[in-house]
Design brief:
single chain, alpha+beta, Hypothetical protein yqbg, Jelly Rolls, 3 domains, five-stranded antiparallel β-sheet
Amino acid sequence: MYVIRSAAPAVEPISLLELKEHLRLDSGTFSDNITSTQSIAPGSQAVAAAYTLEGTGVDVLGKNTVVLLESGTNLAGATNDTKIQDSDDNLTYTDWTGGAFTQVTTANDNATQEIAYTGIKQYIRVVCTVAGDACSFGVSVVEYAPTSSEDDLLDDIIEAARDYVEEITRRQLITATWEYYLDGFPSSNSFKLPFGNLQTADLVIKYTNSAGTETTMTLTTDYLIETNGDQCGKIVLPYGETWPSFTKYPSNPIKVTFKCGYGDAGSDVPEKIRAAIKMTCAKLYEGRGEDVLGVSVYEDQVVQRLLASVRLWDVII
């Protein structure tokens, strides 16, 4: 049996911005660190029904972001409804919860509203409904990210530190998709899946016979999912059922595709794990090629103690 990750997370447990703040690393001025992008250019906006006025998408991954709705004058009886949407690919957008601005009328125009985007998608934009008559406004996306000439190095350090912590804990931190291959079904009525925090969504079990014919098993009929919280999940036989009997394909006859992890955002990962990653990053950044994990016995012990209570002790693979 063996396991491979088929779809890696798009984000890390800590962002580049968080690491820079942890290291107190900033080689730019305040103006260098601020980027403002017009999602909708300021001006008189004509009537647009049902959020058909769409702003330009902005890449905000790894940045602190605030969206500003800057209203001018509404003509008599005019209203402006604006909301934030987010997307993984800058193509398919959905409404972001908490992203609706207060409706702008003649009673509250000529003012600025702001909403901090705290979602996890890479892109955001705004969409607007303008009703009654024209409204004067614009929408800007303001991003804060300390600049550094070492951003590429810091990204590599974050990845290395996360790998190190995942090896210690034997966990998948941010949600990812894995493929788990077995040589045969077990003699018992269950088997475990690695990495903890098993998610029920998109879990698929397939087996292939000697002729190369693949069969997909059916949830609740052929098997049950036991998530077990943050521990290793299980695939369990329903009462009175048995595992399929078949002549196995000679290579990887059984495949379980599953998702696991604390969640899709870095903030979903327990703070003690994030702290351990930050400490490891700091030592890697300080050492620059030295045996940094052995430089400070104290700090390495702190990392180990932070991770001790979240380590998975099940030996599966």
